Amino acid sequence: MKTMESVQDLIEEAKTRIIYWALCIFAISYFLTHTSKSMWMNLPIAILIGSGLRILLNEVEFRWKVHNVRAQTYLSFLEKKQLSVNDSRLSMAPPPPKWKRKIDSPHVEEAIKTFVDKILKDFVVDLWYSNITPDKEAPELIRSIIMDVLGETSGRVKEVNIADLLTRDVVDLVGDHLDLFRRNQASIGIDVMGILSSEERDERLKCHLMASKELHPALVSPDCEYKVLQRLIGGLLAIVLRPRESQCPIVRCIARELVTCIVMQPVMNFASPG
């Protein structure tokens, strides 16, 4: 019990205890009104209950029951770590290729596979590879690389907002080119442009654009066109190729030159002959 240093402290402690007991007795008496409506009859019973609880709490020690935890054996540990029969990690079926997950369309996958197989057959196997060796490993590796590139390209195309591309980006690009043409046409003279042939107009526009440094580098000469395409394809392959292929200089160089010289240059010549 707390040691009292003065009579005032004793009085304060007595007041606190009296208020505490009064509140407890009042609360118990109030709950006892559910059994007896007489408050004065409930008062002594409340005092007895409060005193009994006080003695009980002082004399009896209460604690939570401790449950015995069975020691875990090594066998039970192994049972928990054991994989289920239906666990996917035990399946012998290989996971779907990454390019299939990115394309995510059976019809498109089948069309791409057929197209790539025909390209490999006509331009690789039948054209030169079968004359060297009957082995099929290299064409399959080439096919895997091409499919990964197409899968990566497909995934990136899906992220493009087609509405913004057609209604904003393409319109802005066409508008910029038309504005550039009109400015140079006005500089040359509309009447002069009207009497020139198409080849002469192109040459005159080219000279004006070169003088104003607005001519695209690919239009300066065939060699410049090749270098621009080479640089663009190199950047594209660095993105779409798998890391181990893009970090291999010989693979990166051969892939860049094949796409630049065999694919893109013929396409550009077909789109803009002469």
From TrEMBL:
PROSITE patterns found in the cross-reference section:
PXA
Task: For this UniProt record, give its keywords in alphabetical order, as a comma-separated list.
Answer: Cytoplasm, Membrane, Transmembrane, Transmembrane helix
User: Which is a Pfam family this sequence falls into?
Assistant: PXA
Tell me if Transmembrane helix is a UniProt keyword of this record. yes
Q: What InterPro entries does UniProt report for this protein, alphabetically?
A: Phox_assoc, SortingNexin/PXDomain-PKLike
Subcellular localization(s) per the UniProt record: Cytoplasm
Q: Where are the transmembrane segments?
A: 18-33
Q: PXA domain: which residues? A: 105-274
The record's Gene Ontology cellular component field reads: cytoplasm
Q: Which domain of life is it from?
A: Eukaryota
Name the chain's protein.
PXA domain-containing protein
Which species expresses this protein natively? Lithospermum erythrorhizon
**Lineage, opening ranks:** Eukaryota, Viridiplantae, Streptophyta, Embryophyta, Tracheophyta
